[in-house]
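Task: complex structure prediction.
Instruction: return structure tokens for all chains below.
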Amino acid sequence: MPSTSTTIPRTPGRPHHESANSRRDFLLRSGAGFGGLALGALMASESGAAESMVARPRHNRTPARSVIFLFMDGGPSHIDTFDPKPEVNRLAGQSLPKSIERAITPMGVSENPLLPTRRKWQRYGESGLPVSDWYPNVGRHADKLCVIRSCHADGLNHVGSVCQMNTGSILAGRPSLGAWVAYGLGSASQNLPGFVVLLDNDREPPGGTRVWGTGFMPATFQGTRFRQDGTPILHLAPPKSVGPRRQRGKLDFLSRLNRRHLAARRGDDELEARIASYELAFRMQSHAPEAVDITQETAATRSLYGLDDKATTPFGRNCLMARRLVERGVRFIQLYSGSGSKWDAHSKIEKNHTDRCRETDIPIAGLLADLEQRGLLDETLVIWGGEFGRTPMSEKGDGRDHNPYGFTMWMAGGGVRGGQVIGSTDDFGMHAVDSPAHVHDLHATFLHAIGLDHQELVYHLQGRPERATVNEGEVIAGVMA
Amino acid sequence: MLNNIATPLSARLSRAIMKSTRALVVLSACWAVAYSATLPAAEPAPTGSEWWSFQRLVRPAVPAIGGPEADDVDSPVDAFLLEALRDRHQRFAPRAIPRIRLRRAAIDLLGLPPGSLPSNFKVPTGNAEPPGWWTRIVDGLLASPHYGEAQGRDWLDLVRYAETDGFKSDALRPQAFRYRDYVIRAFNQDRAYSRFVQEQIAGDELFPEDPEAVVATGFNRMWPDESNASNILLARQDALNDLTANVGNVFLGLSMGCAQCHDHKFDPILQSDFYRLQAYFSGIVLADAVPIGSPSELRKYQEALADWLSETRPLRDQLQAIEKSARARAFAIKRRKFPTVVLDAVDTPSEERSARQHQLAFWTERQLPVDEKKLAAALSETDRKRRAGLKKQLAELAKRRPQPPGRLAAMATLEVASGPAPTFVLGGGNYEVPLEEVSPGPPEVLDRTPVTPADAPNRRPGSSGRRASLARWLTADDHPLTARVMVNRIWQGHFGDGLVANANDLGRQTAPPRHRKLLDWLAVEFVESGWSIKHVHRLIMNSRVYQQAGRESATSADPQPYSYFPRRRLSSERIRDAMLAAAGRLDTRLYGPPVRPKLPPGFGSRYTWKASSSQAARSRRSIYIHAKRNLPYPLMRVFDQPDMHESCACRPQTTVAPQALVLLNSELVLDFARGVLKRVQDTTWSKDIPSRVRRSWQLVLGRAPDNRELAGAITFLDEQAARSASDNDVDRANDALLDLCHVLLNTNEFLYVD
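Output:
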């Protein structure tokens, strides 16, 4: 029942909000996320509040408008990429010294011999940030990177850990970070979803579509997976048998019937909104394919992202699409590299990571360069990392086990102070020791960068105020410039 | 305001705990608060016990309505609402026309449009409504076997019903559907709600001879589960926490989950209350086969079994001694990640396990399957021979092993005679920080409101009776919450919103009901009718307020709630069921294993399923669609079906473009339109165009088109045929007619209920 001045909007109400009239209440329930903008515009003529649906007031003044989260699915080894550990090589073949606390790992490798890294390290840029020879092109952007070496998480296995890096909890059921951003900021695009997911192959990450789901929030805020081939969104185009003129004819007739139905039911916002949603759907049919049409890019740009090389093409194409989506106002774009746990190097890490890093090095460097040259880097937060890192101890002789106790992520753009390292692990990269940054702290920091205060961003569930950071977490000091 | 109350855990504390436990610590489950390892000081009496929902249930007097409004009072429900409306100088809207009311009632009660129902559910012909027509319609609908399917769906949302575990493996729960069928059946039989509650919490204890009641205990097992959890102790605690919180949500209508880590920030619920509630469940053993029988039969069986066990003990002990050490050697690597307490549990033979050991073994056994070859290889030659001999002897003795009077395969709970595991208040909600031990008991604030437990003792020999006592307490006639919570849910099913806005939280985070007297009156009626849910439906539906026309007919320009009937969109299931019905394909069979409709082509999920082979199975009502946690059926999810992890008291009703895309562009809905087209072209009907248009309107919208609509549709068919790319005139005409059917399935008139 439409609410009145004295009832609180039902379940998916906005934080701290008491509804003043049914129109507004309705807006609050369905205005944001995918398809919300048209509704905001629809209502703008009558409701002053509607403007906030288009671009909501942000909690703080930070430059970032969009997030590109580069997710290395399976857990990249931090000690072979951004966190050099000479002690591992010095004591190669021995167990961790007694001084290092033993931790549970899924494969029980705590007493296994240390596996030396074969990486060569180089200091880059003015900052002299060390990056291994697996990421030479990313290394050239070292002065843009804020490398957080003291990350830690709670999960041991992929599904729980990917879930936590996306939703804050190793247990399923909570909204993903992208959904929180879509909820908090709405979409800035008229015709595109606020949260888009891009995979580099057919396999989904562990947990499936749930990791970009909305959990207890309405489905409006969920990530939309854009496919690489054909139509980017499921059901975007009519069945082949229905040509464009027929489709337009159907929509016009539908609109006539619905308007007649509405005429006898004046003032019903939901009915109006559904009429509008069909128009938006129709517009999306042309806009979404255009947004991902990278044939419009110059050869130089395509080359910058590695599209002239088979190995770098899948991830490079996604990086390029991500930039196009940022330009079109999409808030949160998540790119999976090695989707389906392909970074999970329990054995033969040399081959595995050589391949994965090669697939991503040029595309990521290209993305950073392209964002910068187009003046988009300041308003785009780029995040790199996986669900956990890997152990210094060997597994199966030439691999590394999962390590959620200490690992690396980096942030760039979006007002982040580059060329710096925050926190550290112990001499072996096993545990975060200096300024540990839990997943909740990371999430609080990501949200902060895009203008959302993780304590202010509240969703009421069953009378319980829920936050993206599960009521924990602090913004990591020193990250922002 | 809320920001000041939240107490984010400092990174320092987080670090300290992580170090101190050096294991996987989930501190994130709730609000974290600082705690000390010592017992907290004695808690003061909870403040807030004066909150309305904790007060005794007393039947309020029905207001006397005089004057012109007296004509608007069809039932006491109207009197309560009119009294409030009169203060605002408003009245009810006029009664809606019979066709509208019939559709409203059929959708509300059965989730199906009237066109799919037998012919006795028809709108009266002629102008006058025959006396008693409406009451007969309501009674008839309540007697339909499809009633349970619609009402049961809401209940399944509450208990986060699913047929898989969730998490990565998302393992199938092959018996789960029996619980779904139990729920549908219980609603159909108008099972007393008190009994319905008792069966779900403690059916095994209260009604040991009743298979249905044992199936009902599946409620206790609906939590999402990581079947291959690495940390078994944490998995066990998570499961118990989830169950405890859900009991609070579903039956008490309180957000108990907040008290997992600290005293509730808003309600007078202490952290110890959470664990006291949990203690009722600490004895549950997760059983997939349950002995069924009368108490005396079960006692006889258990005594005989005890005798057999003691007779065979020496042999079993010898066998166990041989196998235990062999297991440790043979599976050393796999066992390494489990702590001793977990390994002890799984090494203890099932008959000897404590409740806690059963619980731990539930997760561990699946991860440590005994490979007979490897086990044998780990034995010395002598032991191998001894073992073979012992097994042979035991196999002989097993023939005399007493059998239970009956045995039911179900996803259920039971207890073991050694009694429940102890329950502790957990510091900060951390399973590794047990503080004081607690005994089972209701939340203190409700303990202070004396409740007279109903007479329903534990009747299963060897069970602790803890859950029986909780069920008894919850279903006492004078319990302040149980009846209020449920009548509010029933009200919400009819009006979209409850009298209390959040049906899962009648605590202080939710505004008190504006019509508290009405809520209380309904709750008292509910209890006094013998907890009959159908009685409450009758009270509501026979009222004038339910039969009103929509907002556009309201008597005021700024109409108050309940001065008109609120329009609602069909839920996801109802959209699909109504489309199946319009297409003439709805398979109305009740109950049974889940069905799997086809997934959209190119859906390409990591998780997928093979579609049911028969068209009939794929056309079953949506409640029977396989409830897979990692693959919610796409059409359901896009129209707001909850995601099966958290209790959902009220679905959001979103309006977004992807809904339009799926209705307009999916092969699925186009195919439903083809079904409608086939019926429109049915040769027993006239072939002329106006007749076909009328028929399509009737099948999809349940009414005849008016003249303007008819003319508009005929014009559309002409124009659309011209737009079609088909080769000949016949195909073009068919395409156009198909498009008409498809458009009708997309209309607001079809998707919304007036």
